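Translate sequence into C-alpha cells.
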Amino acid sequence: MPHAENGSTTQAMVNGEKQSSQFLAHVGSYPAVSDTKEAIENNPYGKKGIELANEGYNKVVAPVLPYAQRPYGYVAPYVQKADQLADSGLTKVDDKFPIMKQDTEKIKNSILDLFFMPLRLANGGKDYVLSTYGNEYKKCGGNGYVAGGKAMITTSLVVTSDSLSWLADYLNQKKEEAKDVAKEKTNQ
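Result follows.
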C-alpha cells in the first residue's frame, strides 16, 4: 500500500469537493485507518451515519460555503502550513513507530501478544513450579503429608536455586557488556 510517498496531495471527491490535505492523505494511507474506514462503510449502521453526515453537510454547510470563500482566502496559507506541519509530524511518527505502516492484522496480533504476555509468563512460571513440585514429590517417595511437606521445601529450594542461577548469568552478561563499553570508551 502506498504510504504518502507518491507526492500527490489530492484524493477522491468528498462531498463534491476535492480533498487537498497532505495530513489526511497520510492518515488515510495507514492500513489500519483504511481498513477501519472500509469496515464502517460496509456496516449498515456506519452507512447510515455517513448518509446522515452527508445530508447534514448538504443542508447546512454547502449553502454557506460560497460566503466563506473570501475569508478562507485570508487563512488559507496558515491552514496549508498547519497541514504541512501535521504531515511532517506524521512522518516523524512513521520513523519512530514503523508498526503504523504494517498490516492491520499484524498490528492487532502485536497488541494482543503484548497484552497477554503477563498471562503467558505467569502460566509458564506456574507450570514450571508445578512440574518441579511433581518431580520432587516423586523423589520423596510416599503419599502423605510428610512427603508433601518435603516436596514443598525442596521445590522452594530448587526454584530459588534456578532463579539465582538465572540472575547470576544475566548479571554476568551485563557485566561483560559494561566492560566492553568501558573498554571502547577508553580506547577512543
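Note: The beta strands are 13-14, 17-18.
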